[in-house]
Write a structure and sequence with these properties.
Layout (H helix, E strand, L loop, with lengths): L1 H4 L3 H5 L5 E4 L14 E7 L6 H24 L1 H11 L20 E6 L10 H6 L2 H4 L3 H12 L6 E13 L6 H24 L9 E14 L7 H12 L4 E8 L10 H17 L14 E8 L5 H11 L5 E8 L9 H13 L10 E7 L4 H12 L3 H5 L11 E5 L5 E2 L21 E6 L8 E6 L3 E6 L3 E3 L13 E6 L10 H8 L5 E6 L6 H7 L5 E5 L3 E6 L17 H10 L8 E6 L3 H4 L8 H17 L5 E7 L6 H5 L4 E6 L4 H17 L12 H11 L2 E11 L5
Parallel strand pairs: 2-3, 3-4, 4-5, 5-6, 6-7, 7-8, 8-9, 9-16, 16-17, 17-18, 20-21, 21-23
Antiparallel strand pairs: 1-2, 10-12, 10-15, 11-14, 12-13, 13-14, 18-19, 19-20, 22-23
Helix pairs in contact: 3-4, 3-7, 8-9, 9-10, 10-11, 11-12, 12-13, 13-15, 17-19
């Protein structure tokens, strides 16, 4: 390998210390298959001369392009260059990270230090048209040598996906990071404009062309308090139609500059919430399949006021921009928002009749400290009500007019402060919006009062003068509810209550296709879940010792009569070995941490014999089971001698099969057809393949899915 690819060693030197592989920011759930990524860090602080930095930037870009060209020709060589010559860490043999299939796509992170305030837009130099206009001679020669390894391929045009990774910095003022984000937005707009105006040249015969293609940006705000400048930068990004793959760790808490001015704080949150869920939406305009945000992660701290959570919920209910939403609920003993208040407004924003125009498809709620029966009874009443606003505002009388959809005219005065009884504080200043606002919900309307109660998206409960409202009827749903994926993570100790979980599943379970429940202690039977969620295609359960994923075929028999004791390693291993319980064959992924029994709130000393018995039961299970696709076990380092015992089951065939590609089927049929035409004078019976014979041939050509078995050890004290 070194003899064949050693000529690329100087190029790999340019990437040492700059190219890494691993997880950035927060993890993505129980089965995050793309948590590890290739990321490139490009720093300016080591270069005082601009020409030196630009030369280094070009070498890094060309080195990455050459690596991507190698990946297109020979994957094993690509991995060798990454690990042996570039020095990336892929973990130890046997760990899941070690067996990752690493794609040729990159996260690009620019360190903005050393720019001296200049808007040089290094990103434009990296991903703009410049990458194709002036390649170095060494790069052209190296690319030609790679192309020569596959002379049968006449020409190859390789597009290399690049995601810009932007993060705030705890050592910088938020205003500085806001300006850097604005620079990223401007750079991406320049690249988009260059791409639209560029005329691509044809590739010469036998050559390779590598082009870095800008993909949606990833933004991590690190859970820092939001300044007005950062909110403005976020709004500018949204109105610039910059697509965002992930917006991570957005803490819904304002910086000190906004603490003493309630009106400015209200307007700042409204600006943020509208930007996140409501940007550029016209109720009568065309829709696009691609939303502005693929995934948004919001932190709701204990300091968040109840009215601010209502404002957030009012925007979520009319969401037109976010596909996947993750909410971290962070309560404390002195929290301003009770869990019941949270759940009531989440019912309204996510699952009620008022949320049926939302384009949200997936919801993940984490850091849940409680879910009582009383919480879920209120949750259910909001879902079932034809007038949910009456359930939300208990002290409000029913209006003579039903709730209606309206548009607030631009410049209209808006009341936003109310007493604890819901009465407006008329002595407080109002605010107005510069443009008209659609999808405003009126409620408790007597049909005559000058001021009308409204739920204004992004601002929550407000009052608007009747003359400034344009009514559009009762507000029939524009689309059916799209939420089919629900993930719940409980941070529960033994004293906390999740007794309301069955009620929640009964209320929303029918529409769910995917459900994830994660808790240290989760006392609910699988059969009970399936009874309440009859249309599930997959169910993931995460506990202290065991994580597992069950995948269901809608043609399978009903499973409500069966159960798995998934919290007990020995019992679960036995069920997965015997094959009697039909639920066992649905378990496709399994992750086990047997030692956690003694690590978390242990009430008894560590029992080595019991622990080894658990490991041996897992080995027996792997020997008999043919339904698992992925298995992972983590043990204390003193038991690492089990590594070879588990790894011998790695890549054993399962009864699952890979789909035969359509291209392979068409190639076979076309080859047989050509052979028939050429041999018409011979006996045609040899080549007259009917549908049943062809189907059998395709069945024999299908390859089985191989079970991946991973083993990890860690240094822990178990007494």
């Amino acid at each position: 390998m070194d003899r064949r690819w050693g000529s690329l060693a100087p190029w790999c030197e340019h990437l040492k210390g700059k190219l890494g592989y691993g997880r950035l920011a927060v993890k993505g759930g129980l089965w995050d298959t793309e948590r590890n990524r290739l990321h490139v860090t490009i720093r300016r602080d080591n270069f005082t001369i601009e020409e030196e930095f630009q030369d280094k930037l070009t070498k890094i870009r060309e080195a990455l392009a050459l690596l991507a060209a190698v990946e297109n020709v020979d994957y094993s060589a690509w991995r060798y260059l990454l690990t042996d010559l570039c020095g990336i860490n892929v973990g130890k043999e046997g760990e899941e990270k070690f067996d990752d299939q690493i794609p040729a796509k990159f996260l690009l992170w620019f360190d903005w230090e050393g720019r001296n305030g200049e808007k040089d837009y290094d990103l434009v130099d990296f991903c703009g048209v410049n990458q194709l206009q002036n390649p170095s001679d060494d790069y052209v020669d190296a690319l030609a040598k790679i192309a020569a390894l596959q002379p049968q391929r006449r020409r190859v045009d390789i597009e290399i996906p690049v995601h810009v990774f932007f993060s705030t910095d705890r050592t910088k003022a938020m205003g500085v990071s806001a300006q850097e984000l604005l620079d990223v937005v401007e750079a991406e707009k320049i690249i988009q404009e260059e791409s639209r105006n560029q005329e691509k040249q044809n590739i010469g015969s036998g050559l390779i062309r590598c082009t870095f293609v800008l993909e949606p940006v990833i933004i991590d705000l690190l859970g820092m308090r939001l300044s007005s400048r950062m909110i403005h930068a976020m709004e500018h990004l949204m109105h610039s139609n910059i697509w965002v793959l992930e917006l991570k760790r957005v803490r819904l808490e304002l910086a000190k500059e906004l603490w003493d001015d309630e009106l400015e704080a209200k307007k700042a949150f409204g600006q943020l919430f509208n930007g996140l869920f409501y940007t550029n939406f016209s109720v009568f305009g065309p829709r696009t399949d691609r939303l502005l945000f693929e995934h948004v992660q919001l932190f709701c701290p204990a300091t968040m006021a109840a009215a601010d959570f209502v404002a957030l919920a009012s925007a979520m209910a009319v969401n037109q921009t976010v596909k996947k939403l993750e909410l971290h609920l962070i309560p404390q003993s002195n929290a301003q928002v009770s869990t019941r208040h949270w759940w009531t407004w989440l019912a309204y924003a996510l699952f009620s009749k008022r949320s049926q125009a939302s384009l949200l498809e997936s919801v993940e709620i984490t850091k849940i400290h409680g879910m009582t029966v009383a919480d879920m009874e209120k949750f259910t009443r909001v879902l079932e009500s034809d007038h949910p606003e009456e359930k939300l505002f208990n002290d409000f009388p029913s209006g003579s007019w039903e709730e209606r959809i309206a548009t607030v005219k631009s410049g209209a005065a808006i009341r936003w402060q109310f007493s604890f009884r819901g009465e407006p504080r008329v002595d407080c200043p109002t605010f107005s919006l510069p443009s008209s606002t659609p999808l405003v919900r009126t409620f408790c309307d007597d049909g005559a009062s000058e001021w009308v109660y409204t739920l204004l998206p992004g601002y929550g409960q407000c009052q608007v003068q009747r003359e400034n409202l344009e009514f559009h009827g009762s507000g029939a749903a524009l689309t059916s509810s799209r939420i089919s994926v629900l993930k719940l993570e409980f941070v529960n100790e033994r004293y906390s209550s999740v007794d309301g979980l069955p009620l929640l599943l009964s209320a929303v379970g029918f529409s769910l296709h995917s459900l994830t429940l994660h808790a240290r202690y989760l006392d609910i039977e699988i059969s009970s879940i399936l009874e309440r969620c009859p249309n599930l295609l997959d169910l993931s359960l995460g506990g202290d010792e065991v994580d597992l994923q069950l995948v269901f075929n809608r043609n399978d028999e009903p499973f409500a009569a069966f159960n798995l004791d998934w919290n007990n390693v020995a019992s679960l291993s036995s069920a997965l070995s015997e094959g009697i319980n039909p639920l066992a064959s649905c378990v496709h992924r399994l992750r086990v941490r047997p030692a956690n029994r003694w690590l978390t709130l242990a009430r008894e000393p560590f029992d080595s014999a019991t622990f080894e018995a658990d490991l041996n039961s897992l080995l027996d299970m792997l020997r008999a089971n043919r339904s698992l696709k992925v298995f992972e076990v983590t043990v204390p380092v003193q038991f690492r001698e089990f590594h070879s015992k588990f790894r011998k089951f790695h890549l054993q065939p399962t009864y699952h099969t890979l789909k035969l590609p359509l291209a392979s089927k068409l190639a076979f049929i076309s080859a047989v057809s050509r052979h028939e035409v050429a041999q018409r004078t011979q006996s045609r019976s040899l080549y007259q393949l009917d549908q049943d014979v062809v189907r059998r041939i395709f069945a024999f050509a299908i390859s089985p899915v191989l079970c991946q078995v991973f083993f990890a050890s860690q240094h822990v004290y178990i007494g």
